[in-house]
Amino acid sequence: MKFAVIGGTGLIGSQVVKNLNAAGHEAVPHSQSTGIDVISGQGLGEAVAGADVIVNLTNSPTFDEASLAFFQTSMDNLLAAGRKGGVRHFVILSIVGVDQVPELDYYRAKMLQEDILAAGPIPYSIVRATQFMEFIDAVLSWTADGDTVRLPATPVQPIASKDVADAVAEVAAGAPLGGIRNIAGPEVFSLDELGRVTLSHKSDGRTVVTDPTAGMFAVIKGDVLTDKDAHLAPTRYADWLS
After folding, report:
1. Phi, psi of 208 (to 5 degrees)
2. Tens-place pLDDT, residues 36-47
3. Residue 184 in contact with residue 233, Cβ under 8 Å?
4. Which residue of 1, 37, 54, 103 could cross-link 42, Cys pair, CB 3.0 to 4.6 Å?
């Protein structure tokens, strides 16, 4: 099969391309660096020509309200190019619990992306993942102040990017789901606990203070970012850290 992997040079996309090619398929990475623009539509027709499957792993450059317009325009352009090119399956990567956090602009934007895909003309699959292990350092940096990192006790279920890429490649190579597959890491932590584990492993002397008002995840209520019934990935956080 031939795959057009849009956003195929990023953290997940590059691994998806590698996995699909290793399985004997033809997966071609496309991104701004290869000359495509999902907002203007430049190069999209050529990128998806002859492809059986589009895997869209592009991401908004911002997490604010502008992300809504990014996903609206990029999805409209990719669906139009895919329909014209005869694409038979369209896959996106989304977030576990995305439909339950309307307070966050970015989560509303990802929900819009899902809705556009589901209403579109191409058979589709949505893979929803929990928070990436690779993003924990960034989360710590958002609320760091001197020797203190403030984090809420929001439950999270971190997953390694390798496991995300494996799941996306598997879904992309299969029949369209016409729905959603949730994937998650094998363990649930509170975010403040995860911060302490991370800093301890790195011999980082900063202190994590539990603060229910700190950072982006402070607005999240309950355990909506976790899913005990998801397809559980194998990589544990301690093993990933080491």
Report:
1. -90, 125
2. 999 999 999 999
3. yes
4. 37
